[in-house]
Request: fold
Amino acid sequence: EPERLLIIVVSLPQITTTIISSLSGSSATSGGNITFDGGAVITSRGVCWSTSPNPTVSLSTKTTDGTGAGVFTSSITGLAANTTYYVRAYAVNSAGTAYGAQQTFTTANNVVNLPSVTIGTQIWSSQNLSVATYRNGDPIPQVTDATAWQNLTTGAWCWYNNDSATYASTYGRLYNWYAVNDPRGLAPQGW
Reply:
């Protein structure tokens, strides 16, 4: 009986990019669906994004969301507000890297319109600051426990006397030094 030769052909995976959801000023959710592994194990998968079209896995702006074929979800974080991004799902097997169709999205604009008053040549807010997010949209946690507040080394806010009903309209939110000094910016854009 003659020997039989088995030839296995491996190709790039087939993948689609999930439509963007949960969009904010600093984050979004996407992902992908690997419908065919190309005849080889999927060793890496995720999404890559950029402010320029056709992002690739050579960028640092990417997620790594496991291995194998099928559906996966990716959290895209660290985005700038009011900015257009391009995202593509990717899948890697021994044949190389395949990309899904590009999705485009624009992050939310985090501009807050505060009531103002002009004094001389300067414009001042006529109400106390009361934001629960940094300028880029990242949340600032509320801390109500006095001991926890004293031991913080990260940004936080609270209501005066932990009583928003009585004091919110008078004082707004109160912030610790870490929130005020955070490089993401506490005051809304333009303030």
